[in-house]
Specification:
The complex is a heterotrimer.
Chain A (H helix, E strand, L loop, with lengths): L4 H7 L8 H9 L3 H18 L1 H4 L21 E3 L2 E3 L10 H37 L1 H15 L3 H12 L3 H28 L2 H8 L4 H37 L11 H9 L8 H28 L6
Antiparallel strand pairs in A: 1-2
Chain B lengths: L1 H29 L2 H5 L6 H10 L6 H13 L13 H36 L4 H15 L2 H15 L12 E3 L2 E3 L4 H35 L1 H8 L4 H39 L4 H10 L3 H29 L11
Helix pairs in contact in B: 1-12, 5-6, 5-8, 5-10, 5-12, 6-8, 7-8, 7-10, 8-10, 10-11, 10-12, 11-12
Chain C lengths: L1 H14 L10 E6 L14 H10 L4 E3 L5 E3 L2 E8 L2 E6 L13 H10 L17 E5 L5 E6 L6 H4 L34 H5 L10 E7 L3 E6 L12 E6 L3 H9 L5 E3 L6 H6 L3 E16 L5 E2 L24 E2 L5 H10 L2 H8 L4 E3 L22 H10 L7 E7 L6 H14 L3 E7 L1 H9 L5 E6 L7 H8 L19 H11 L4 H17 L3 E14 L2 E3 L12 E3 L2
Parallel strand pairs in C: 1-10, 1-11, 16-17, 16-18
Antiparallel strand pairs in C: 2-3, 4-5, 5-7, 6-7, 8-9, 9-10, 11-19, 12-18, 12-19, 13-14, 15-19, 20-21
Helix pairs in contact in C: 8-10, 13-14, 14-15
The chains are: A mainly alpha, B mainly alpha, C alpha+beta.
Chain lengths: 305, 325, 555
């Protein structure tokens, strides 16, 4: 049952032979669930990216929507439009609304994750590489922040910043950066003691070159794991903030806001307004989590597989 | 130990101070509470008089200084909305939230640990996979959505449990609690379960990971070789090993549960401090918001401190001196 | 205190004549908004005032249509332009058993200006009184500085507390300076919240108050009037509308206020649930920035004709020309709105298209004033005439949690404006942010609502249409800053005309002028809805108040 050492080394990419990414890919594909998750996620991402070209309607263009078509059940036909998933109270096609909502949700999730990853990653790397007082201060702040629940911090930030997509992103970055800082610092501290960094230092390479060309690439695997999980968290957090009425403005509804709007209609039998966006959000988050889960298993050498 | 405590204390004071400035200024920047609190029939002169009455005409730094002076004397300010000391209002509402949080953590542990151990023992079985899939769902489902679904199912469609509110309460050690009455118990179940769902997934994962790791250890193999029953192996060795992370969860997550109660309390109209916070943000009731945050932050600092101490007691390898203060 | 209440209840239980079934005599009401306090003089706002009326009575009652009827005063009349005489009801007792007399009125009037930290004081309803005489315990003579026709209606807004119960026994002389008439200590807000000082003359008595959870009232068996059939009424604030409906459907509560529009069909289909509704006096309107040569948020109108002076974002940053100064543009906006579609589709039929700021039949309205007809072609033509053949861009500000379906109405209007060529985007925000933004004049166009507390046209005209003027008390909520000196003078004249017929004519005329000038665009009047068990009935009210006083079981 014990893991042979060779496998462990292969996983960290030290042993020559099979390229590490291929090994990684085949490990990842061991779980059919994760592959399904990845496939679904790619499809969702594509439909969000290409929403303007594949949706029957631009739900933000007030010329295209008509209040008189409000709350039509799925499959209704009005004029030239067929509303496959029905319409909301404003007469927006739900299908189009969901695709555009996905766009908002995913871009808020992705943007906040990327910015937080960049900021938190840089800060964490700096802390690990320089150590000493810089490290102490940065990590103290990060630890402090991590000891408070994300929702509380996000709530404070958004209530101070006000409504808006940009504000939400800032708040989510403010919540997330510490996760990356801590993750990358932990990994970097281990990597820093390795021979290749010593070698690079002996070659008198610049700090920047050592950090970004040598240290960073070797710290990415755990970062990817945390990043995947955090995207899902960010999307769910945004939905929650929107539900509490302090998130995205209603004119550019994210999935969370679509659900919130639908939440008001759930009891009246107009289930489709909340049901489909809810399902879309659910599928998105679950697929991301499935991928993240498998990534964690694959990239965590401590776990025997 | 002493140095650790002192360092913690100093750090906490700084955190509280910085927090109070940020929140004070932030809420000041959003707007004037008089704009929403005043009766629209009031004319301009009355509007100005009200702003003066609440001291909102003074420069923000003066206002903050007044606040700080009062805090040092133990007064966190008087709520703009309720005209009672902010701290008092929060303390009045705290038992409801604590009750909900404890109920949620309790449910998470009662259901989460056995489920996690099963998933850890049989990771490839249908049950194990099912539990893990369920925990992924628990992580993914937004709390408010689940809350409404629970109301839809159990209150409206089945009519088993009440949809909102706290139900009958009785005095217990000087505070009003609802878990001692049947009516109160029926009221607390849905919100507590709703709040527990996320933590339950977390406990399941912790327990599963712990179990899997422990099962590979030599001493477990040894215990099994010795012919100890499975029940004993799990009951003693596995449980003991996953206790440390779960104690941490117990402590740390209680705080986060209190924070997350904001959502659950809003859905179930549970009269706790979370709902109070949302209402107060909506009303720009600055004294209440600041007092809430100062209080929660203090609570977190204490919880973290206690967890660290407990941790060092449970695991002799951890020494407080080594820990980040 | 508690013991005393119980012994009272026991004493009266024995003498109660009409025994009611115990299970049927308890009522639970789910409220959309929670009172901030039980103190009747702390916060002058709807949720507080509706709760206040159960416990503390005022001199005068407003009926379902806001008509004034006797309560603690049996009759009143102006004896001169500046003097009013009120005859008080005899034999009325407070909950503690003390008698109600004119002294209690004076005591209350003295307390109102002294309530500390009040975020919305009742002084706006006491400041007109300059001198109060009490020739006998059941007569009040009130002097005002100027002729003040609104005095009776303002006396319907605040409830009277007992002087004796609060430890004042001697004579009290009213002093209008607002320092408390020499009384050194009044009961504090927290004493009302705890029930200690919550002693009124109302048909309900304080039972229990748990902030955020419930407010329990018990029947006052010693009530002077007909009283209530309910032994106990519990008010529960359930601010989330879906949860409120769910609580009613689940049977947790018997009665709820403001069920959301979208759930009405569902509720109507339930055999055990009935809806009560009443056209309210709350008008939903659009205010248009008519202040300076430029205005924020408008694009495509070119450079402004002059420089912007005064308060507002355009004083410091560049803005484009303000098209809303042109009456034709305002008229075009009005014509572009399909009010019937809003009523039908957004409000689910529970609204009435508005042609004025108060519904037909209220004091000071013009008989037959019709809502603007939907005429998109006419609107386009007017825009061309005004020099905007290609329209322009506009931002419509709205709260999204203040009025019934507020943000949805705004989105519908934005669609309609966009159709006539005014590309409109909606800026919806939570009410705290909305009001702050509005008060900084950051909107060219915003949606808001106005409920008239007095039920007469002077209320919206004074606050929404009158030029902002601190000394005259006009324009308190006129953030569109429309200004018309002729209308101002008419409002001022009406406000000091005691003769009802003359005042009504003046108000109607000022309203007609404002509508003709498109000073403000009324959209519709909210129809307030209550949902409750089918075996209950409610005397639905135009002021949107939810009160157990009007809830009866069907016999």
């Amino acid at each position: 049952m014990n893991m042979p050492d060779s496998i462990l080394e292969e996983k960290t990419g030290v042993v020559e032979g099979q390229p590490p990414w291929r090994r990684f890919a085949s490990d990842f594909c061991e779980s059919r669930l994760a592959v399904a998750g990845l496939t679904i996620f790619v499809l969702i991402a594509l439909s969000a990216i290409f929403a303007p070209w594949i949706t029957p309607q631009d739900p933000y263009d007030l010329m295209q929507i008509d209040i008189l078509d409000g709350r039509l059940p799925p499959g209704s036909v009005s004029g030239e439009m067929t509303y496959l998933l029905g319409t909301d109270d404003q007469g927006r096609d739900m299908l189009s609304g969901i695709f555009y909502g996905l766009r908002t949700s995913l871009s808020v999730g992705a943007a906040s994750t990327l910015i937080a990853l960049f900021l938190g990653g840089s800060v964490g790397l700096i802390a690990a590489y320089f150590g000493g007082r810089v490290d102490t201060i940065i990590m103290r702040v990060a630890d402090l922040q991590l000891s408070f629940p994300a929702i509380l911090i996000a709530l404070i930030l958004v209530s101070i910043l006000g409504q808006g997509v940009d504000k939400i992103i800032i708040a989510l970055v403010g919540v997330q950066w510490a996760y990356y800082a801590r993750t990358i610092r932990g990994t970097a501290l281990v990597e820093r003691r390795r021979e290749y960094i010593e070698a690079a230092t002996c070659l008198a390479l610049s700090h920047r070159r050592i950090v970004f060309r040598h240290l960073l690439p070797n710290c990415t695997p755990p970062l990817i794991v945390v990043g995947t999980v955090q995207v899902a968290h960010a999307i769910a957090l945004e939905a929650t903030l929107s539900f509490l009425g302090i998130g995205i403005p209603i004119t550019e509804p994210s999935l969370g806001l679509l659900i919130k709007n639908g939440f008001d209609y759930m009891l009246s039998g107009d289930y489709w307004i909340s049901f489909y966006p809810g399902i879309a959000l659910l599928i998105t988050i679950v697929s991301i989590n499935l991928v993240g889960d498998q990534l964690r298993d694959v990239l965590n050498p401590r776990l025997q597989r | 130990m002493l140095a650790f405590t002192v360092r913690r204390l100093l750090q906490s004071v700084i955190v509280l101070f910085v927090m109070s400035i940020i929140v004070f200024l932030g809420i000041y920047a959003i707007g004037n509470p008089v704009d929403i609190l005043i009766n629209p029939e009031a004319d301009i002169a009355e509007q100005e008089a009200t702003i003066r009455r609440l001291g909102l005409d003074k420069p923000v730094w003066t206002q903050y200084f007044t606040f700080l002076t009062n805090v040092l004397q133990g007064d966190l300010g008087t709520s703009f909305v309720h005209n009672e000391p902010a701290l008092l209002i929060i303390l009045e509402r705290l038992p409801a939230t604590m009750e909900l949080a404890v109920g949620a953590v309790g449910l998470a542990i009662i259901i989460g640990i056995p489920a996690g151990i099963i998933a850890g023992l049989y990771p490839d079985s249908i049950i194990g996979r099912g539990i893990m899939a369920g925990s992924i769902l628990g992580f993914s489902l937004p709390t408010f959505w689940v809350g409404l679904m629970l109301i839809m199912l159990f209150s409206v469609m089945l009519g088993w449990l009440p949809a909102s509110g706290r139900g009958d309460t009785v005095g217990f050690l000087g505070v009003q609690v609802s878990f001692l009455t049947w009516d109160g118990l029926t009221h607390i179940f849905l919100p507590a379960f709703n709040l527990a769902l996320f933590k339950m997934s977390l406990v399941i994962r912790l327990a599963r990971a712990g179990t899997r790791e422990v099962m590979l250890q030599d001493y477990i193999k040894f215990a099994r070789a010795k012919g100890l029953s499975n029940v004993r192996v799990i009951g003693v060795h596995v449980l003991k090993n996953i206790l440390i992370p779960v104690v941490t969860v117990l402590g740390l997550e209680l705080g986060s549960v209190i924070a997350f109660a904001v959502v659950t309390e809003t859905v179930f109209a549970w009269p706790g401090i979370g709902k109070l916070l949302i209402d107060s943000i909506g009303n720009l009731d600055r004294p209440l918001v600041v007092a809430y945050l100062l209080m929660t932050v203090t609570m977190f600092i204490i919880i973290n401190f206690v967890v660290d101490i407990l941790y060092s007691l449970l695991d002799p390898r951890v020494r407080l001196g080594d820990m980040k203060a | 205190m508690k013991i005393r209440l119980i012994s009272f209840a026991a004493a009266f239980a024995m003498t109660t004549l009409a025994p009611v079934m115990a299970s049927a005599a308890d009522l639970t009401v789910g409220l959309a908004s929670e009172p901030s306090s039980i103190d009747p003089h702390y916060h002058n706002l709807g949720p507080n005032n509706e709760m206040r009326r159960h416990i503390f009575e005022s001199l005068i009652w407003q009926d379902e249509q806001q008509k004034l009827t006797p309560l603690l005063a049996t009759s009143w009349e102006p004896t001169s332009e500046t003097t009013w005489e009120f005859k008080l009801r005899k034999g009325v007792k407070f909950h503690d058993g003390s008698d109600f007399t004119a002294r209690d009125f004076v005591y209350t009037a003295c307390r109102i200006p002294t309530v500390p930290n009040s975020p919305s004081s009742f002084t706006i309803y006491t400041s007109a009184m300059k001198k109060i005489e009490t020739p006998d315990p059941h007569t009040l003579i009130i002097h005002t500085e100027k002729p003040y026709p609104l005095l009776p209606v303002e006396l319907a807004v605040w409830g009277i507390i007992s002087a004796t119960a609060n430890g004042v026994t001697g004579d009290i002389t009213f002093n209008p300076d607002g320092t408390g008439c020499g009384i050194t200590s009044f009961p504090q807000t927290k004493e009302f919240n705890s029930g200690q000082a919550t002693i009124g003359t109302g048909m309900f008595k304080y039972g229990e108050y748990v902030k955020g959870d419930r407010y329990v009232m018990n029947r006052n068996d010693a009530y002077w009037g007909e009283g209530t059939e309910w032994d106990t009424v519990t008010f529960k604030p359930i601010t989330n509308s879906a949860a409120r409906v769910a609580a009613l459907l689940a049977g947790d509560v018997d009665f709820i206020s403001k069920p959301p529009t979208q759930d009405l069909e569902r509720l109507e289909s339930e055999p055990d649930i009935t809806l009560s509704s009443m056209g309210s006096n709350r008008v939903i309107y659009l205010h248009m920035d008519q202040y300076g040569p430029s205005t924020p948020g408008v694009k495509g109108t070119g450079a402004p004709d002059g420089t912007y002076e005064g308060e507002g974002p355009c004083a410091t940053s560049a803005c484009e020309k303000n098209p809303l100064l042109d009456r034709r543009v305002r008229q075009a906006l009005s014509k572009a709105i399909n009010r019937d579609a809003i009523v039908d589709k957004v409000m689910g039929g529970y609204a009435v298209a508005a042609g004025e700021l108060l519904p037909q039949g209220f004091f000071g309205t013009n008989e037959g004033a019709k809502p603007e007809a939907y005429d998109p072609e006419g609107a386009k033509k007017l825009l061309v005439e005004a020099g905007y053949p290609n329209g322009f861009e506009l931002v419509l500000g709205t709260p999204n949690d203040r009025y019934i379906n507020d943000a949805k109405i705004a989105q519908a209007i934005a669609q309609m404006f966009t159709r006539v060529g005014i590309k409109t985007s909606v800026n919806a925000m939570t009410k705290s942010v909305f009001f702050a933004t509005r008060n900084k004049y950051e909107f060219s166009l915003y949606l808001a609502g106005w409920g008239s507390g007095t039920g007469e046209m002077s209320s919206p005209m004074r606050a929404l249409v009158g030029t902002r003027d601190k000394s005259r008390g006009l324009g308190g909520t006129n953030r569109g800053r429309y200004s018309n000196p002729v209308i101002d003078d008419m409002i001022m004249e009406a406000l000091s005309t005691v003769d009802d017929d003359k005042r009504a004519t003046l108000l109607a005329e000022s309203s007609r002028m404002a509508m003709e000038d498109y000073a403000i665009l009324p959209l519709h009047f909210e129809v307030t809805i209550w949902a409750h068990r089918s075996d209950l009935s409610y005397g639905a009210r135009a002021d949107q108040y939810t009160m157990a006083i009007g809830i009866n079981s069907k016999k």
